[in-house]
Amino acid sequence: MSLHLCNPTTFFSLPLPISASLLSLTTTPVTNYSASVPAIYRLTAPAIAYTNLSFCNITLTYTHPGQNDSIIIETWLPAASSSSNLTTNPTNPWNSRLLAVGGGGYQAGRFDLSYAGMQGGLGEGYATITTDAGLGSDTTARRWALLSEGNVNLYNLLNLGSASLGDMGLIGKEIIKAFYGKGPEYSYFNGCSQGGRQGMVLAQRFPGLFDGIVAGAPAVYWSEAMGGFQWPQVVMNEGGEWPFGCEVDAIGEEATKQCDGLDGVVDGIVQEVEGCLGVFDPFGMVGREVECAQLGGRVITITEAAAAVVNKTWHGRERVDGRKVWYGLVPGSDLTVNGSGIVATNCTEERCVGRANPLGKDWFELFVEKSSTADVSNMTHRELDRYVKATKQDFGSLLETDDTDLAEFKRQGGKLISWHGLIDQLLSPKATERYYQDVSAIVSETQEFYRHYEVPGLEHCFGGPSGNPLELLGQLRAWVEQGIAPEASPVNVTRLDGTTEARVVCPYPQKAKFDASCTGGACWTCEDAIRPPH
Ligand SMILES: *[C@@H]1O[C@H](CO)[C@@H](O)[C@H](O)[C@H]1NC(C)=O
Ligand SMILES: *[C@@H]1O[C@H](CO)[C@@H](O)[C@H](O)[C@H]1NC(C)=O
Ligand SMILES: *[C@@H]1O[C@H](CO)[C@@H](O)[C@H](O)[C@H]1NC(C)=O
Ligand SMILES: *[C@@H]1O[C@H](CO)[C@@H](O)[C@H](O)[C@H]1NC(C)=O
Ligand SMILES: *[C@@H]1O[C@H](CO)[C@@H](O)[C@H](O)[C@H]1NC(C)=O
Ligand SMILES: *[C@@H]1O[C@H](CO)[C@@H](O)[C@H](O)[C@H]1NC(C)=O
Ligand SMILES: *[C@@H]1O[C@H](CO)[C@@H](O)[C@H](O)[C@H]1NC(C)=O
Ligand SMILES: *[C@@H]1O[C@H](CO)[C@@H](O)[C@H](O)[C@H]1NC(C)=O
Ligand SMILES: *[C@@H]1O[C@H](CO)[C@@H](O)[C@H](O)[C@H]1NC(C)=O
Ligand SMILES: *[C@@H]1O[C@H](CO)[C@@H](O)[C@H](O)[C@H]1NC(C)=O
């Protein structure tokens, strides 16, 4: 029987890193497994559906002795045939590769999106793995942030930041060796957001562990990412006015309308984001009437406060002294997300108050204030400056993920692809562009090992008029295994009329250009573009 090695005896003497001590291990043969994963949840690979797969689920819990942590690693290994030729099981062969998947928000892994990633990988024959970094599966950090009031659980942050990822790679390879009798020929990582940051950490801190990494919308420059979540709220707090969401939305929609065509194509997608800031003035909308769906269709006028917060959100965080310090979201992104975006407010019929994004709120309350009862909803500008600085000082080495020296990753043959939706409503795509530029400035011939893709019309990780880049994972594999570097990469875009169009995204600094004289569907090509340095 093909899963006969799926029992604890196989893993009896599993070698673990010196820092780790096994607490428990379960093996579960899974048969007749079916899954259907849409492309968006695979992030960088096409949709997949299958029935009747068999795999061995090896889930283990370990601790770093003395740290009082308890980390769960879950591994799914495609059933191997019982003969010594592991590639001949026609129903579900192992493809000799490892695919690790990332987390999102305050979850390191073992949540819906990581399971979708694993289901996708399994369907393609990968041995696939995820870690919870010892944090469990809550969407908030509240349960694991503090040891006691005033004392952050730094080991949990270390595990989230990097340690659990190195462990996952090393332990995953040992599990594979024990089960199949040989390690993976190639190892890959695929993740977005927190998962994108995890991918970047693997390149920065564990060169050689993964051959190929694809990192979407990575939460790198952690302290500035946190500051960015809170910045619009601080702008509103300082102004003492909190606009209705419909005012902010009306300004955003008008910007999209006016800037849409700057790239030569009217499709509801703003590609020329810098150009948009030059031609569209949010203050030009002040006094205009909008029918406010939020208020049952009541007509209200757009306030100066709405224009001001949109303007500041697009321009990015500045310090109290007026110095601009970070990048904003870009025109075209959904700032309110119907009451849960970073410019969201919480309104009655008459007035609104602020509504801080829970990711930033958790961060500043639990980790910077180190308190389970703090409330930073009314944060001032001066406080935000201090909170961001304190984040760098207290937690920089744990989470900043801003090390641009990827020389060793390159030397060991690693390949890295990052991608970022241009209408990301949480993390500025400009930050990832900055990271790419900074790597390029210090590691020669960057394009030989690292390529970055901007995806116009894509929201945070998925959503919006653009679909996900469907082949980046496949292209990464071809790059690693055959030396074929990725160039244009396909995406499907939903046009204003609801039809689907095949387009491409391009390795930075190139941009996709529409060729009006095209025939036969291949209308989009990658062209060189001038990108001003940050
Ligand atoms: C296998 O799974 C399918 C779909 O979930 C189900 O209909 C079928 O009864 C299962 N077969 C066996 C042998 O359990
Ligand atoms: C499901 O997979 C098992 C094991 O590979 C195989 O024996 C069985 O015939 C398959 N069932 C179907 C309906 O394909
Ligand atoms: C794998 O095993 C773990 C531990 O028993 C369990 O929590 C998890 O749900 C299993 N996963 C699947 C896909 O069966
Ligand atoms: C270890 O963690 C558990 C909860 O996970 C806690 O009850 C226990 O007190 C901790 N032990 C030490 C020594 O901190
Ligand atoms: C294993 O299977 C592959 C593909 O079917 C075949 O090319 C190879 O010769 C086999 N190897 C052994 C050792 O049987
Ligand atoms: C928009 O914000 C930028 C950056 O803070 C600022 O320089 C500019 O004056 C603002 N525009 C208006 C009209 O206030
Ligand atoms: C927006 O949020 C409100 C209240 O939370 C909800 O009733 C409404 O369905 C949402 N609208 C959309 C378009 O999601
Ligand atoms: C919005 O405000 C009401 C009270 O005015 C409060 O009960 C509710 O929790 C707030 N919602 C959010 C998401 O902050
Ligand atoms: C924030 O300010 C508002 C208005 O001044 C006040 O009603 C509210 O209690 C304050 N919230 C906190 C957490 O201090
Ligand atoms: C992408 O669009 C093309 C048609 O333009 C279609 O054939 C293909 O199935 C689409 N792919 C996905 C994953 O939606």
TrEMBL record:
Keyword Transmembrane tagged? no
Any signal peptide, and if so, which residues? 1-20
Q: Which organism is it from?
A: Podospora anserina (strain S / ATCC MYA-4624 / DSM 980 / FGSC 10383)
Q: This chain belongs to which protein, by name?
A: Carboxylic ester hydrolase
Superkingdom, according to UniProt? Answer: Eukaryota
GO terms (molecular function) for this protein are: feruloyl esterase activity; metal ion binding
Residue stretches spanning the membrane? none
Q: Has UniProt tagged this entry with the keyword Metal-binding?
A: yes
Q: What is its EC number?
A: 3.1.1.-
Family label? Belongs to the tannase family.
